[in-house]
Design goal:
about 220 residues; alpha+beta; 2 domains; 5-stranded antiparallel sheet; two-stranded parallel ribbon; about 35% helix; globular
C-alpha cells in the first residue's frame, strides 16, 4: 500500500491546492476588473466635479458629470491631451486641466481648475499620490486646496508665476500658496509640474487663447 504521507504525495497535494487557489484568485481578478475600472473612473469624475465646485454628496456622479464637456487639444509635443469645459448659458465658465508630475515619493495626479479668463486658478485637487502621511498628504486638506482659488497663474509677460513657497505665503500674495510643513520637496514638485502644464509645452497656448493673449 502506498504511503499517503510520502514526500511525493505531500508535494502532489500542495501543488494541487496551489493551482486551485491560483485559478480562483485569477478568476476573481478577471471578474472584478470591470467593476474596479468603473470605480476608478467614477472616483476621477468625482474629483473633477469637486475641483469645479459641482459635486453634491449623495448625488449621482455620472449624472452630474454629464454636464461637463470633454475636448482634446494638441500639445507642443504633438500629443493629444484632454480638457474639461464647464459652461454656463453656453459660455465657458471654467476649464479643468489634468496635471501630473513628480512629488517626493512618486507621481502625483490631479486636476487644476481655471477661470474662463485663462489666467486665474479656481482650485487644485489630487486623485492619486503617495506623499508622506501627515506631511506631504497635506495637499488633500481642504484648507490648503482652498488657497488656490483666485490665485494668478501668470505674470504680466505671460510666464507661469504660481508657486508653493517654503513656509507661509506672504500676506496678500496673489500668486503664492503656503508650503506644507515638513514637506518642502512635495511643494516644490507641485510648483514645478503645475508651471509645466500651464506653460507653453502644456496647456499654455490654450489658456492664452481663452484670455485673448495668444501670440
Amino acid at each position: 500500500m502506498a504511503n499517503k504521507e510520502s514526500i511525493g504525495n505531500v508535494l502532489f497535494v500542495a501543488i494541487g491546492v496551489s493551482l486551485v487557489c491560483s485559478v480562483l484568485v485569477a478568476s476573481a481578478a478577471i471578474i472584478l476588473k470591470p467593476q474596479q475600472l468603473a470605480n476608478e473612473l467614477e472616483f476621477q469624475q468625482r474629483i473633477v466635479l469637486e475641483v469645479a465646485g459641482l459635486y453634491e454628496p449623495g448625488a449621482d456622479v455620472g449624472a452630474l458629470y454629464s454636464s461637463i464637456e470633454e475636448i482634446s487639444i494638441e500639445l507642443a509635443s504633438g500629443e493629444q491631451a484632454p480638457v474639461f469645459l464647464v459652461r454656463s448659458n453656453g459660455e465657458i465658465e471654467q476649464v479643468i486641466l489634468p496635471v501630473q508630475g513628480a512629488g517626493l515619493w512618486g507621481t502625483m495626479y490631479g486636476y487644476l481648475a481655471v477661470e474662463s479668463d485663462g489666467q486665474t486658478a479656481r482650485g487644485l485637487q489630487f486623485y492619486q499620490h503617495i506623499e508622506t502621511p501627515g506631511l506631504g498628504d497635506g495637499v488633500d486638506k481642504p484648507a490648503w486646496q482652498a488657497q488656490w482659488s483666485g490665485k494668478r497663474l501668470f505674470d504680466d509677460d505671460g510666464d507661469p508665476l504660481i508657486e508653493v513657497v517654503k513656509g507661509p505665503a506672504p500676506a496678500g500674495s496673489d500668486y503664492q500658496i503656503d508650503g506644507l510643513a515638513g514637506a518642502t520637496l512635495t511643494g516644490r514638485g507641485v510648483s514645478i509640474f503645475v508651471r509645466h502644464w500651464i506653460g507653453d509645452e502644456g496647456y499654455g497656448p490654450f489658456l492664452k487663447s481663452l484670455s485673448g493673449k495668444e501670440s
